[in-house]
Sequence to fold (281 residues):
Amino acid sequence: MSAIDSLPPLREVIAAQGLSARKALGQNFLLDLNLTAKIARQAGDLTACDVLEVGPGPGGLTRGLLSEGARHLVAVEKDPRCLPALAEIAETYPGRLTVLEGDALSLDPFAHLAPPVRIVANLPYNVGTELLVRWLTPPDWPPRWLSLTLMFQREVAQRITAAPGSKAYGRLALLAQWRCDARIVMDLPPQAFTPPPKVSSAVVHLDALPAPRYPADPGMLERVVATAFNQRRKMLRSSLKGLAPDIEAHLEAAGIAPTDRAEQIDLERFCALTRSLTELL
Fold:
């Protein structure tokens, strides 16, 4: 394995710092630096962008992002054991790495980032979906980021990119695809990680659209989709009856048969239904 910088291989860093992945923190370390650089390249040209990374651990992806030219990288790390390894990376790339110690769910890293911003992360399994939903649902759109390049369990990646009619299709697919172009760009086997997880992983790349794909009130769309998929085996006239007394009329106005089920309905028709129901408010 060729080196991407002058720092030691990650196995040596982990051994020297006494780091071991902690299940409670959702940690699984990627040790192949050529692989982390390849993941960084999936985010596009980083040379004119600030980059946010969540959960860098010992810094494998961090080094990949910096070696691929990230203008400035802000890394948010909750585990204090990883800070010395990240400090060594900061010394190797002077002025280009800022490490924030803390929980990504409670910090606002955008105060340390200058646009344009790309988010690239091997997200901890236990907070990955929650962070994605937060990034997809800011108060204003377009968001403060251009793109998300994120590693998830493959099952979650499939849910983000799923098409109508598939078992994976649901709230996450609609939420992501309403405001982004989303695609899986890499697959990773368990053996790529230390320790190997029990599931395969995948990298999803999401490009933010300048405006949502179809007009709809964000809060109402979320409510409609969540209600529909909460009872996904039921016909929509039954699962959505609590939203309006004349729900069948709203369904038909949106081009949806009242006997259809949630997984059959594409994004455009969910947005049309949302607009119809919003008129009641």
